[in-house]
Write a structure and sequence with these properties.
Layout (H helix, E strand, L loop, with lengths): L2 H5 L2 E5 L6 H10 L3 E4 L2 H9 L6 H15 L3 H13 L5 E4 L4 H11 L3 E7 L2 H10 L16 H15 L2 H5 L3 E4 L4 H17 L1
Parallel strand pairs: 1-3, 1-4, 2-3, 4-5
Helix pairs in contact: 2-10, 3-4, 5-6
């Protein structure tokens, strides 16, 4: 891949809730990559409408956006920001969920687009999600606590309703997050550096 194409690379980070996607994205951001979070669209719209930021409100808004724009809604609505950021360098996208979103980004960016899957078992993820606590600096609502029952229900809904398994199955790279955050960050940093080098 030529230098200009490396600069215009887009990496989407995928995985189930609690797998460690946000941590992986933070590593890319620390290395100077542009950052797009698909789910921020939901948060911003709820704030504009004066509605509370709750899982129920977010679910309702996500479903409304997909009814209006189709299952690729979040990729379509994020394209202008991704393309704007690509002018300054590579971009990491957090929150690619649906198969339709995957296909939209693949079609738009071709070989410049790759997918990184962060994997952790359901048992590991549910344990982490149950231990999360609200942080005052979590303005983007990226890290919220879920009970095991809530987490499993979310898993089922995302797999059955938005075909979240498709992008995970088609991932170009996979990193395991079954041990420490330090190991996850190290693996993601190594991958990012490799992508930057071409």
């Amino acid at each position: 891949m030529k230098g200009a194409e490396r600069r215009s690379r887009v990496v989407a980070v995928v995985g189930m809730c609690g797998a460690g996607k946000s941590v992986a994205c933070d590593v890319f951001r620390e290395l100077g990559w542009g950052y797009v979070r698909f789910g921020q669209i939901t948060i911003d719209l709820l704030k504009e409408e004066g509605r509370p930021i709750t899982p129920e409100e977010e679910k309702e808004k996500r479903e409304a956006l997909r009814r209006e724009h189709g299952m690729g809604a979040y990729a379509l609505l994020s394209l202008p920001k991704i393309e704007r950021l690509l002018g300054d360098g590579p971009v990491v996208a957090d929150g690619l969920y649906s198969w339709s979103e995957y296909k939209i980004l693949r079609e738009r960016f071709g070989e410049r687009f790759s997918v990184l899957c962060v994997y952790a078992s359901p048992e590991t993820r549910y344990g982490r999600l149950g231990e999360r606590r609200h942080r005052e600096d979590d303005r983007d609502h990226r890290n919220r606590m879920l009970t095991p029952v809530q987490a499993r229900a979310r898993d089922y809904a995302e797999i059955e309703n938005i075909e979240k398994g498709g992008p995970i199955a088609m991932a170009d790279f996979t990193v395991s997050n079954e041990s420490s955050l330090r190991e996850l960050r190290s693996a993601v940093r190594k991958l990012a550096r490799g992508l930057e080098a071409g």
